Structures are given as C-alpha cells and as structure tokens.
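Objective 1b: paired records.
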Amino acid sequence: PSISPSYLKLSKLIWDKKKITWPHAQITWKNLFAL
C-alpha cells in the first residue's frame, strides 16, 4: 500500500522530536553544534 507524503512528513516530525528528546540525542546535538 502506498503511504501519503503528508503521513511520511508527520512520522518524520514525530521521529525527529523523539530523537531530540532522547538524552543521547541531546548529547549528539550538543556535540554537533560544538564542532
């Protein structure tokens, strides 16, 4: 079955938010911005 682009965008948004809220992800973001 085909997945609508809007659903993909939504799931990606939620996934990104999850990654950002994870402590490990926060550390990764800090390391990225520290470079």
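Objective 1b, second protein:
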Amino acid sequence: ACGGAFQAAFGRLFVAGGLGHQESPFLAEGLKSKWLVRTQALPQIHRQSLLDLTEGPCILLATFLGAADLCGMDATCRTVRELNRAHGGPWCVLGSQTFLGLELDGDGVFEPLEQTGDERIGATSRKQARVDWKGRFARFQAEVPTFREPFSGTEIMEVEQPDEIAYSRC
C-alpha cells in the first residue's frame, strides 16, 4: 500500500458511486448531524479511496505536473512510480511535450513514432513498453543543452582554433 504524502492527500477522500462523500471538519454541529443522517441513509456501498484508483484519475492528473512534482509523487509510492514511468504515463507525456522535435545525438527523438509496416509496429510497441521514461527524461534534460566533443558542458569558454565548429548534442 502507498503511504506518505500521497496517502495524506488522498487517503481521507472516499469515492462512493461516483460521488465523493467525506465528513467535513468545517461543518457546524447542527449541520454535521444533518449530514450524518443523510449519509447514513445512503445505501452501504463499498468505499474506495483514490489510492484504489491509481490507474484512473490520479495518473491522468499527474500528466499535468512538472518534473519536480512528478519526482515528489514518485517518492510516495512504488506502484505510482511504476505507473508514472510506463509508456503513455506522465513522464512519457512530459518528455514528449518538453522535447518535442528535439533529437539527441545517439538516442534519437524522445518518443519515436511507430513505423508503418506489419512487424515493425509490434516490435516498436514492445520496445516502448520497456522504456524507463523517467530515466529517458532525465538523460534528455541533462544532455540536450550540452555540446559534443571537442567541447563539453553547456558553455564554450575557450576555442583553440578560430574556425572551430561546435556541435550541440541535440
């Protein structure tokens, strides 16, 4: 089971029959008793927390987060971390948006398009299913702003020959 910040954020919110039912700590005593009578009159439905819906709304919402927020979300739970790293998950979506049209020397584009052809589509899909999209995002983020040899790093501080050409890794 997941714990930490993720559980603190979503553990008390229950979903029953598509409607969220949660006792509000801000209700006055009179309203609280009316709320309890109304909710006790509802049919008893198996309640699920948002943690039980990891492949649904939580992952969809995670596609709107940035890299720092996704790292924080990954730190809360192994299951969520694995879902975030999956093909089509938040890391894949973030990388596709961030590095759209950029090709890294030796790695190609961030998310290669499936090639047309009967057997190549299946092979590409299997390969994409094994990609660690968080690791690929980190590699692109680190290497896209750098230069190839004979230069290295993000800045060129010294040039040996006046007509030297600098190539980026992207």
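Confidence is low (pLDDT under 50) at residues 1-28, 30-36, 115-124. The radius of gyration is 24 Å.
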